[in-house]
Amino acid sequence: MSGSTFGKFLKLITFGESHGKCVGMVLDGVKPGLDISKEEIENELRKRKPGETFFSSGRKEGDEIEILSGLFNGKTTGHPICIIVKNRDVRSKDYEDLKSLFRPGHADYTIFKKYGIRDYRGGGRLSGRETVGRVIAGSICKKILKKYGIEIYGGVIELGDIKAERFDIDFIYKNPLKFSDPEKYEYAEKLLERVKDEGDSIGGKIKILIEGLPPKIGDPVFDKLDALLCGSIMSIGGIKGVEIGRGFEVSKMRGSENNDQFSKDGFITNNSGGILGGISSGDTIEIKASVKPTPSIFLEQNFLSEDGEVVKHKIKGRHDVTICHRVVSVAEAMASIVLADGILYQEKIRESSEIERKRMEIDLIDTEILNLLSERIKISREILRLKKRENLPLFSKEREKEIFESCKIFSRLSGVSESDILEIFQKILEVSKKDEKD
Q1: What are the φ and ψ backbone dihedral angles of 220, each rounded to 5 degrees?
Q2: Residues of 141-159 as b/e, b for ≥16 C-beta within 10 angstroms?
Q3: Considering only CA atoms, which of 291, 296, 200 is closest in space to residue 242?
Q4: Which of 155, 226, 320, 389 has the most CB atoms at less than 10 Å from its CB?
Q5: Contact partners, residue 167, CB within 8 Å, separation at least 6
Q6: Is residue 3 very low, low, confident or very high in pLDDT (cuts 50, 70, 90)?
Q7: Category of 137 on φ-ψ map: left (φ > 0), alpha (ψ -120 to 50) or beta
Q8: Are 302 and 312 in contact (CB under 8 A)?
């Protein structure tokens, strides 16, 4: 009902509110025996947590995880994995004056209209704090993908009007803004300082690259891989647009420009972003997402009261100048979950195909057995007619003994149970004996 469940074969549920006791997730469908440590999960959480830069919310959360189920001695057990993170640095008093006010740019108004109740403290369930559960699940799914040689990288490629011209992965993980261009970093930092001083916020754009995905993940029509990836990233708070490959640019291109032609070494271009017909092509998957400016700003704005009155108001508290750098790890996590789910589905398709092939082989063998059995009965009846014409005994104990001895020899050679083979031939001989009586 609340839209908190995600995935087809890997089932993720996230839970918790910004100022509640804890946030967390349950992930079901992970195979047993996957190595995953507390430290690995917390390293991923560190990439999204607040208080890490001058431009982030001042909220200080250690984000130490507590594993409740599904992991034992550093390995997955195959059972649902439940992990929580306790909220420690909450300041609910900062939101007391918002009890009956709807903030512009937030979901306060729509949540209240839908449910008739809302948790006004830090946005409640709609807070960025909810993404803790996503990142935990993503860290587990990243380990699954690593087994298949699949890597996911993300970074900020635009902040306001500062556009990166390079996507330097090494630099991304060394700077707190996760900005992708070392030559433009200083400009991006100065822009954020200016915006912060003005009490405002700013948006930007992030990019996610997926390397090593084989050409078969995703389904045509409704479950296209690009549709699932876009939907998963659009589900992150603050995302207002998602592009695959050249994205919105294709509206200005010709087919001769946009088509990714082939060479002996693969595709010459990657305008499709690694997805064709909803199925991965084996090329790098490229996703870009537009992040809106943080709606919590320190300027006076028009708020709406629950009574329908427009009120001039300024918010208080600790808020981000931009959330782009924090969204990167969440987008990586969502892409990881989609891909791990897709790989699990592909394995089930392959297993199903193998079963169907083996069943077809059995069907062919069964048809052959029935044809041979029919031929045996036919020949057996011809022998009976010949015996009758020559006035010979119709039934031979010696012949039956020879058949059973052959069955025993076959059993030893094939490893098939002697009793099973004898039972089959006894049934066949019963047909012959019935023919003799008739």
Answers
A1: -70, 170
A2: bbbbbeeeebebbbbbbbb
A3: 291
A4: 155
A5: 155, 157, 180, 181, 207, 209
A6: confident
A7: alpha
A8: yes
Does residue 63 belong to any structural domain of this protein?
A: yes
Contact assessment for residue 19 and residue 94, using Cβ atoms and an 8 Å cutoff: no
Domain limit, last residue, from 351, 383, 408: 351
Question: In the chain, what's the furthest Cα-to-Cα distance?
Answer: 117
pLDDT interval class at 168 (50, 70, 90): very high
The label of the residue with tokens 């782009």 reads: 324
Q: What is the pLDDT of residues 365-404, one digit of tens each?
A: 888 888 888 888 888 888 888 888 888 887 778 888 888 8
The answer on 273 and 190 residing in a single domain is yes
pTM to 2 decimal places: 0.81
User: Which CATH number characterizes residue 160's domain?
Assistant: 3.60.150.10
Q: Which two tokens stand for residue 407?
A: 């069955």
Put the strands of the sheet holding 310-313 in their side by side order.
101-102, 301-305, 310-313
Q: What angle do CA 273, 276, 278 make, to 5 degrees?
A: 105
Does any domain span residue 252? Answer: yes
438: containing domain: 393-438
Rounded distance between C-alpha atoms, residue 247 and residue 203, angstroms: 19
* Amino acid of residue 359: R
Total domains in the fold of the chain? 2
In a shared domain, residues 330 and 413: no
Q: Token digits for 329? A: 């790890």
313 and 214 belong to one structural domain: yes
Residues 97 and 243 in one domain: yes
Phi, psi for residue 40 in degrees, rounded to 5: -60, -45
Contacts of 408 (CB under 8 A, 6+ apart): 418, 421, 422
